[in-house]
Amino acid sequence: MKIIVCIKQVPDTTDIKWTENNTIQREGVESIINPFDVYAIEEALKLKRTIPDVEITVLTMGPLQAETMLRQAIALGCDKGVLISDKKFAGADTYATSKTLAAAIKTKLQDFNLILCGQFAIDGDTAQTGPGIANQLGIPQITFVKELKECNNGSVCAVREIEEGLETLKVELPALVCVLKGIDETTRPKINGFIKAKNAEILNYSMEDIGLTPEETGIKGSPTFVSKAFRPEHNRGECAICKDCSELAIKIKEFGGISYE
Ligand code: FAD
User: Fold this and answer.
1) Which of 16, 20, 23, 122 to mutate to test the pocket of ligand 1 (most atoms within 8 A of CB)?
2) 245 touches ligand 1 (CB under 6 Å)
3) pTM
């Protein structure tokens, strides 16, 4: 079984700063693998431990420095790293990002069974990229996944979080799954993992290599326009302590919420 895990390099900070073009300031900030993508890697590694002949490729679109993150994923137990990097990708919104990753999969990694993504990237946080890739490839998707229950060469079955509780879905492969924080501890790299990662060949493809034109990717291929980016003002008002539930219910009603007395 061939698994692709899409991973994104994100700033290692909750104090996000903006450039004058309203994009996230990435220079001068330490980077990490997006935490949800670490859980996506973990689900892939779990399958590798339980099913024979699983090959895991980690894929990212990003600057050349993102190669370090791909090597970290290989140190954890992934097999191959693919970096899609080109100055022409700059300014890509989620539509152009999904299109670019899907183009890389169609042209360079077409022999796959399962794609795993994180549910959100902690910087952009739109949760649109995974569903966008599935849409571009015309394959089924399961989002908000807590756990993969079963996966064989024909189908994948996953437990997903919904507002009312949990839902189990099964779809035919090839498919894409977006994962939330998993229930298992994440794997730590071992010394032989570091050696494998150091020597691994990372394949690097440009825009031309994956068959896209400048009009289809980067800022030109992005229909989103960010007019303003700002921090919401905190105006919490004064704190009130309620003596009992009925007083709390009245306060909720006064605040405009629905309360069941
Ligand atoms: P989500 O959709 O929340 O991510 C979900 C999952 O998708 C991740 O967990 C991961 O598995 C996968 N994923 C997401 N991104 C990648 C990736 N790059 N590679 C592999 N897997 C991935 N960002 C820049 O860095 N530089 C820019 O110049 C830039 N310009 C922008 C311009 C506009 C107009 C807009 C709207 C956004 C711009 N962005 C830029 C942000 C960029 O579009 C998003 O970071 C990107 O599309 C991913 O969206 P997200 O962060 O919301 O990820």
Assistant:
1) 23
2) no
3) 0.87
Span 80-114, pLDDT tens digits: 999 999 999 999 999 999 999 999 999 999 999 99
Domains of the chain: 2-216 (3.40.50.620)
Per-residue tokens: 46:
């779990």
Tokens of 213: 């034109």
User: How close is the Cα of 111 to the center of ligand 1, in Å?
Assistant: 24
Q: Element (H or E) spanning 227, and its range? A: none
Ligand 1 pocket member 85 (CB < 6 A): no
> What is the Cα–Cα distance from 146 to 164, expressed in whole angstroms?
14
Instruction: Name the residue among 59, 90, 66 with its Cα closest to residue 176.
Output: 59
Q: Encode pLDDT of 195-218 as tens digits.
A: 999 999 999 999 999 999 999 999
d(CA 147, ligand 1 centre) in Å: 24
